[in-house]
Amino acid sequence: MKHAEAQEAVLARMAESRAELIAAHVANEPVRITRARRALPPSTRDAPWFLRTPNAELIALALVGVAILGLRRTVQTAVGAGLSASTHRAFGDLLSALRD
Predict the structure, then answer these.
(1) Which range marks the domain in which residue 83 is found?
(2) Is residue 77 a contact partner of residue 69, using CB atoms and an 8 Å limit?
């Protein structure tokens, strides 16, 4: 019987704290700030759109690769690296699945 009583006490405390959290959430709801649009730094406002993307480094790397190696060799290198990473990940997942 001690276990059942202790469990009831814990569940009662959980219900009380849940009610307090819900009340605090409802009370603070009108104060919440909506997501504000992030202003870009002045140095990036004048940059072309492709330099403002999260993948700007990849775009720059591809352009440099095309300028140095040529289009065909750059594509071959990129595809080879992608296949190598994909194959490595697949074999790693397979081995970890067999290990477990």
Answers:
(1) 43-100
(2) yes
Contacts of 53 (CB under 8 A, 6+ apart): 59
- CA dist 46 and 42 (Å) reads 8
* Same domain for 47 and 14: no
Q: Give the C-alpha separation, 27 to 46, whole Å.
A: 43
* Residue 38 domain flag: no
Clarify whether residues 83 and 52 are in a common domain: yes
DSSP string, 8-23: HHHHHHHHHHHHHHHH
Mean pLDDT (whole number) for 37-52: 66
Q: Global pTM?
A: 0.39
CB 61 within 8 A of CB 53: no
On average, the pLDDT of the chain sits at 82
Distance (Å, rounded) from C-alpha 56 to C-alpha 89? 25
Same domain, 53 and 90: yes
- CA–CA distance, 15 with 37 (Å, rounded to integer): 38
